[in-house]
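Quick one: structure tokens for this chain, please?
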Amino acid sequence: MPTRILVVGGGGREHALAWKLGSEPGVNEVVVAPGSDAIALEPRVRREAIELTDVGGLVDLARRRSIELAVIGPEISLALGTADELVEAGVPTFGPTLAAARIETSKGFCREVAVAAGVPMARGALFDRESEAIDTARAFAVTDHQIVVKEDGLAGGKGVTVCGSLEEAEATIVDLFEKTHGPIIVEERLEGVEASVIALCDGVRAVALPAARDHKRLRDGDAGPNTGGMGAYTPLPDLTAADTESIVQRFHVPVLAELARRGMPFRGALYAGLMLTADGPRLLEFNARFGDPETQVMLPRLGSALGPLLLAAAQGKLPADAPRLTTGRQAAVGIVLASAGYPAPPSTGDRIDGLDAAEVAEAIVFHAATRRADDGTWATTGGRVLTVVGRGPDLEAARDRAERAADAISWPGMQRRRDIGRAQQSVPA
């Protein structure tokens, strides 16, 4: 067990990581940078207000605090090469290098690696020219396949447009080329339900976390615009633990081998966003870090200590017979509470009421975008503000606790969904 851990980030995902790691036997201190007012209130957790862009400052912090394990949360930190600098400084780091993180920072690179590894995914391609992208969209339309258009780079979980018609696809392609100047990806649209399978990886081996499902759309019934995620739940009624292990062997392990072959071994959380189709799972995308809000529901289910596995993965030393992570409580449901205006620029500075009542309702409240005033009151500072997590023996009980706790919280214009964790119909993506 690492005794001094650095968590890089300050959102809801990092709050969940600090909450979990700080509670584990043998951990003396979890330092979170830049952290948040709420994260700093967790036992054995301290905050260091160093910005994500100050990579040198983070390295200095790790040296000063004699950090034994660094865990990188946000994708922006991976894109800045934070893992590279920490590893160069001799700090075991759970989070891929800049080169390996391209599996997320470039969707075109992700497709290239997945195809080389033999991973099943939607038909499609990366395009540098607008005319070629439109020709492919038209070809999909002729064969009755609807179309998905994706930005190549990072887009905060909102860079994917599921098009309802060829006309919408063509307009999206034109708009994206005007906005980004390319490249972009055009893919066929898959039918099924989505699943998130995240594995802890040491460059060769992988250990799966409990599978989860994220609700991306803003409003109930999967309506409204895409967001970074409005809630998640685990376990999945349509994906058993054995199914999850099979997915890791079919998707994660071949990609790890391909990245290693290219001289960029992946050590960190490899997140497969999947569509469960009638023909089996198909890859939508890989991410190079823990999911948000999936992490907030996965970690409260764990019965195993997380710190030793993260350290072993960071050192390239996951045992060949690494055990499946055990789960304590059987189910968890997380409801995201968002500010007015989100996913467009949100309203901020609104006073949050009801946090104490939510905790009384047997829920965990992870803070993503809040600040605490001197008088102890809380206010919003961003779009996705809180994730309210209920746990229970089954999804119904967990959802009931999450709903009751979320009902206790309010601020002007607050947005939320009321169907997180309910039976999900087959949807295209």
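The first strand starts at residue 4 and ends at 9.
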